[in-house]
Amino acid sequence: MIAKQSNYKSESVWQKWAPKCANPKCSAKSLLQTIHRRHDGLIVDGHRYCSSGCFEQAVKRMIKEVINSEGKPAKARNSRVPLGLLLLQRGILTAEQLKIALAQHKSTGLNFGDVLQRLGFATEQQVTAAVAAQWACPVFAVGDRQLENQLHIPRQCLELYRMLPVHYSEHRLLVGFVSSVKYQILSTIGHITSCTVVPCFITGRDYESQLKSPSTSFVRDQEVVFEEVMDPTAMARVVTEHVTKLEAKQLRMGQCRDYFWVRIWRNNEETDLLFRMQHD
């Protein structure tokens, strides 16, 4: 009994001095190998990895799990009332105007809401309100205020999906879209920022003025975009290089339709890595 207690205490001391690697497939099987790697390790999200190689293996596994769990981007549902019909019901369009707008939309391929505004059949506010009603979301009036990027979202995503974070309070983020809600992106934003994300709609004019303002806070600082499609092995290698270089202590990841988003933290500083995804 005494011998067993002694062995247990010895193991506890060794585990504190050379803790076990968090990578379940770690190749350091012996205590001597673990001790040898003790000063080469990384601690991320409270888990210790005995080497950058072990961390890279773990990141590769996490990337695969996220991609496999989220699968392909969901197709938009077509059960919403068509925009033209909704504006007709509201008395904003006449039947003749709707016919003209639909014909021009078909011939030009332009967004139907933009066609209505170009023809002078509806205002931007009327189109935005109708689109918001299609998605059962509120309209957020930006007005003359200058929005602040309190919870940073990569500018690459803001430009690609025509959205802006418009209000943040008590761990609740309101994200405004111009034309359609991207729910997969909202879910990933919520996961990475640890907040509840709610969609709304804003006008295209408010979106453009906020994003292109000389004093905008929606910048590309600490944002790295990789447009060449990589496999999980290459992505994990890049993530590991950045984590090691920055001595980062926290990491989260998620898929945003066209990009795989990885955010790493060093103290309170954030760095976003965006990897282009390949879709069939």
Order of helices and strands: HHEEHHHHHHEEHEHEHEEE
CATH superfamily of the largest domain: Type II secretion system, protein E, N-terminal domain
State the distance separating the first and last CA atoms: 63 Å
CATH architecture of the largest domain: 2-Layer Sandwich
Q: Which class of the largest domain in CATH terms?
A: Alpha Beta
- How many helices? 11
How many β strands by DSSP? Answer: 9
Outline the low-pLDDT stretches.
Answer: 8-17, 30-39
Structure overview:
The protein folds into three domains: about 1-70, no CATH class; about 85-135; about 140-220, GMP Synthetase, Chain A, domain 3, CATH 3.30.300. The chain contains eleven helices and nine strands. The termini are far apart. The chain has helices at about 1-15, 30-35, 50-70, 85-90, 95-110, 110-120, 125-135, 155-160, 185-195, 205-210, 230-245, and strands at about 40-45, 45-50, 165-170, 170-175, 195-200, 225, 250-255, 260-265, 270-275. The chain is α/β, with parallel strands linked by helices and about 280 residues long. A four-stranded mixed sheet has the order 6-9-8-7, with helices on both faces. A three-stranded mixed sheet has the order 3-4-5.
